[in-house]
C-alpha cells in the first residue's frame, strides 16, 4: 500500500465501492436465469479480426473496433448481421440473440475472416 490514504480518499473509495455494489445488484439476473450478459471486444487491426473466433452466450454483446486507417465491415456469411461500413477508429456493436455458428467476413476485403459462435 503506497502510503496512508487520507480520510477523504478513503471515503471516496468507500462511496465508489458502494455505488459499484448497487450497480451490480441492479442488474443481477433472476435465480436460474443463467449467466449475465456481457460485452466482448474484437479489434480490427492490420486487416485482421482479433480474436478471429469468439464464443459468446446468447444475449451477449459483441463490439468490433476498427483500428485500421481505412473502413471495414463485419458481414455474416448468411447476412444475418452486417455492420455496413465501420470507419477508421469507429466501433460497431451487435447483440447476439440467435444461437449458431456465424462465419463472417469484411465485405471490402473478403480475405478477412472471423467466426462468431453464439451458445
Ligand atoms: Cu476490410
CATH class of the domain at 39-118, please?
Mainly Beta
- End-to-end CA span: 42 Å
CATH superfamily of the domain at 39-118: Cupredoxins -  blue copper proteins
Note the beta-strand portion. 25-35%
CATH fold description of the domain at 39-118: Immunoglobulin-like
How many whole angstroms does the radius of gyration measure?
19 Å
Average of pLDDT: 83
Can you tell me the overall shape? globular
Unreliable parts? 1-6, 13-32
**Ligands and ions found:** copper (II) ion
Q: Could you give the order of the helices and strands?
A: HEEEEEEEE
Tell me the structural class.
Answer: alpha/beta
Proportion of residues in helical segments: 10-25%
Neighbour order of strands in the largest sheet: 2-1-4-6
Largest sheet: 4 strands, mixed
Tally of extended strands?
Answer: 8
| Count of alpha and pi helical runs | 1
Second CATH tier, the architecture of the domain at 39-118: Sandwich
Compose a concise summary of this entry.
The protein is 17% helix and 31% strand.
Give your account of this protein's structure.
The protein is of the alpha/beta class and 119 residues long. It has a domain at 39-118: Cupredoxins -  blue copper proteins (Immunoglobulin-like, Sandwich), CATH 2.60.40. It is 17% helix and 31% strand. Strand 7 and strand 8 (113-118) form a beta hairpin. The chain binds copper (II) ion. The site of copper (II) ion has 5 residues, from loops. Residues 72, 106, 108-109, 112 line the site of copper (II) ion (CU).
